[in-house]
């Protein structure tokens, strides 16, 4: 017969398994776990022998592991659903479900460990606890946040599936035509269509042609404006450019009443902004930082094509030179040349979405944590994108979509959902005002499904999906899920709840807890797990879980709860052991 000796040490429980004919085996138990003893086969309802894969660890001595080791083990078994070994692909797939991308620089060391393990292995590489500990050592906080669903989009895999559905719906759109007034633009297929998004926590998702490079064109205008404000300040920049919508086409020869370009989002304003940026070579560095060092290139062919077909922009330049729009000492031709270069910067949907997310995150790149732009410059940029970013469709965009956005004649739309995410859509066919047909349709469908419109938060407004709200955020649903897991002995579900910081002492309508339910049903492994993650709770009339177990004749559970009850009844009795934290009296538990 096995005996378990329980010791309370530094907030953890040590259980010593003894057998009349066997040497002692020592287990370490911390809250929210299931016991492990000897060899066993894990099932969804727990192994045939009491087992704790989360925080009860088989050891050959009584020295405790570090607190972080217990957290890592809990995370490991939560990801693997109680298995001791899983393929590495299983782990990377679980990561992607949370929205974390393997190329995320925050996971660089983790991915390097995995690559090294694959390189050193002959056959298929299996991830065990040892490899997991090596991989997550420096990323434990990030991974705990991810798997506890503490990111801005907690149910990211569900959200990504919705995005895919919108993508497929919009893909059927065949209207519009590819811009041909710049020869290089006319070379792109009208069937190309990609969408990438990146949240302020660095969760990423892409669907379609998201690795195909394309030029930013006018999507660079909010970026260059933000850089100019970051360097020179708002007051200095707006001495030379206005902040009002023009109501005219983006390439019109038109100035406001003060002989200034209407805003930085039209060609005239962008050309003047180009003259305000002092150190031209630093712009590319800014853009790369905004993209988290993901792909940012330059198309020399597009640059040459822009210059050869830029008569309208040259006309705008000379018109503004005659009106003295440029700062003193600025060279108009150099400013135009720099403007053409900026329009020829290449990105992909994936890198573009990180740029948008940097704006959504107040100027801090989500995947590097580096502050690239000042909060002031980002606020001003988003304000102008909202009012002027979509050419003479800006009013309708603000009305129907209600979010800051900027379009370009390459077919790109850079969309920002402040404090949530950035999106980059790309499809070359344009409508009559120069916006991507599919891109506009996607933005409208996105806001129709989710409450991302700036004014969707008004009281009594029509309910939409809110992906920022965790699934099961409703207390009643949480109680039901917890009680059902206890009733059915689903240790894997209980482990997920514990990792997500659910209160394991939630009560149902008659004040019964999950421990009452598991005890009444005789679910041994669920009972042991819950014991490690909560304290004893009486019902209002003084009924304990052990009373339920005794009433329904579950003697094995009665034995465990009896000693568990004994531990907590002796909490005030502590002894001091040299070099160790206070421990509680030793108790014997018959299993």
Account of the protein in words:
By secondary structure, this protein is of the alpha+beta class. Helix content is 42%, strand content 13%. It contains 23 helices and 19 strands. The protein has a five-stranded antiparallel sheet, with helices on one face. Strands 9-8-15-14-13 form a five-stranded antiparallel sheet. β13 (405-407) and β14 (412-417) form a beta hairpin. α1 (67-80) packs across α19, α7 packs antiparallel against α15 and α15 packs across α16 (394-400). The chain is elongated. The chain starts with a strand and ends with a strand.
Assembly of the depicted chains: single chain
Shape assignment: elongated
Number of distinct helices: 23
Span between termini = 7 Å
- How much helix is in the residues? 40-55%
Structural class: alpha+beta
The main pleated sheet reads as: 5 strands, antiparallel
Total strands: the figure is 19
* Average pLDDT taken over every residue: 80
Radius of gyration: 30 Å
Determine the strand fraction and express it as a percent band.
5-15%
Biggest sheet: strand arrangement:
4-3-2-1-19
Query: Which residue ranges are poorly predicted, with pLDDT under 50 across at least 5 consecutive positions?
Result: 1-67, 572-591
Key features of this structure:
13% strand, single chain, five-stranded antiparallel β-sheet, alpha+beta, 591 residues, Beta-lactam/transpept-like, 23 helices, elongated, Glutaminase, ANK repeat, Ankyrin_rpt-contain_sf
């Amino acid at each position: 017969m096995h005996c378990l000796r329980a010791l309370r040490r530094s907030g953890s429980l040590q259980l010593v398994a003894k057998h009349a004919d066997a040497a002692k085996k020592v287990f370490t138990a911390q809250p929210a776990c299931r016991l492990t003893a000897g060899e066993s086969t894990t099932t969804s309802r727990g192994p045939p022998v009491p087992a704790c894969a989360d925080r009860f660890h088989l050891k050959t001595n009584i020295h405790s592991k570090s607190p972080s080791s217990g957290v890592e083990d809990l995370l490991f078994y939560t990801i693997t659903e109680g298995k001791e070994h899983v393929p590495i692909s299983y782990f990377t797939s679980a990561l992607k479900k949370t929205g974390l991308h393997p190329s995320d620089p925050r996971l660089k060391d983790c991915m390097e460990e995995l690559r090294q393990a694959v390189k050193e292995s002959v056959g298929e590489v299996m991830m065990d606890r040892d490899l997991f500990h090596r991989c997550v050592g420096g990323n434990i906080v990030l991974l705990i946040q991810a798997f506890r669903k503490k990111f801005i989009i907690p149910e990211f895999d569900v959200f990504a599936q919705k995005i895919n559905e919108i993508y497929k719906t919009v893909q059927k759109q065949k209207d519009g035509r590819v811009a041909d007034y710049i020869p290089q633009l006319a070379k792109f297929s009208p069937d190309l269509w990609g969408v990438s998004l990146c949240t302020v926590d660095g969760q990423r998702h892409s669907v379609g042609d998201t690795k195909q490079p394309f030029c930013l064109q006018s999507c660079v205008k909010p970026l260059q404006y933000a850089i100019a404000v970051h360097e020179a300040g708002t007051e200095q920049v707006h001495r030379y450019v206005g902040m009002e919508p023009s109501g005219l086409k983006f390439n019109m020869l038109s100035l406001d009443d003060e002989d200034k370009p209407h805003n930085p989002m039209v060609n005239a304003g962008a050309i003047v902004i180009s003259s305000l940026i002092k150190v031209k070579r630093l712009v590319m560095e800014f853009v790369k930082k905004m993209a988290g060092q993901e792909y940012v290139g330059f198309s020399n062919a597009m640059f040459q094509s822009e210059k050869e077909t830029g008569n309208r922009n040259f006309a705008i330049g000379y018109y503004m030179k005659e009106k003295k729009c440029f700062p003193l000492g600025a060279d108009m031709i150099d400013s135009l040349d720099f403007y053409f270069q900026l329009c020829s910067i290449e990105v992909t949907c994936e890198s573009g979405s990180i740029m948008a997310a940097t704006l959504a995150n107040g100027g801090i790149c989500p995947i590097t944590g580096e502050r690239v732009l000042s909060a002031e410059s980002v606020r001003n940029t988003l304000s102008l994108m909202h009012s002027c970013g979509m050419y003479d469709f800006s009013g309708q965009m603000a009305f129907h979509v209600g979010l800051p956005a900027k379009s370009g004649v390459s077919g790109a739309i850079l969309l920002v959902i402040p404090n949530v995410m950035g999106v980059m859509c790309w499809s070359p066919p344009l409508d009559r005002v120069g916006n991507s047909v599919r891109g506009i349709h996607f933005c409208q469908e996105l806001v129709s499904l989710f409450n991302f419109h700036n004014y969707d938060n008004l009281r009594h407004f029509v309910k939409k999906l809110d992906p920022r709200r965790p699934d099961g955020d409703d207390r009643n649903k949480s109680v039901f899920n917890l009680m059902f897991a206890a009733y059915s002995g689903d240790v894997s579900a209980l482990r997920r709840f514990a990792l997500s910081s659910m209160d394991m002492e939630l009560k149902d309508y008659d004040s019964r807890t999950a421990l009452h339910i598991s005890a009444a049903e005789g679910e041994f492994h669920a009972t042991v797990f819950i014991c490690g993650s909560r304290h004893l709770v009486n019902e209002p009339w003084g009924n304990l879980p052990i009373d339920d177990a005794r009433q329904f004749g579950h003697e094995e559970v009665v034995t465990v709860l009896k000693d568990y009850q004994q531990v907590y009844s002796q909490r005030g009795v502590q002894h001091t052991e040299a070099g160790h934290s206070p421990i509680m009296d030793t108790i014997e538990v018959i299993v």
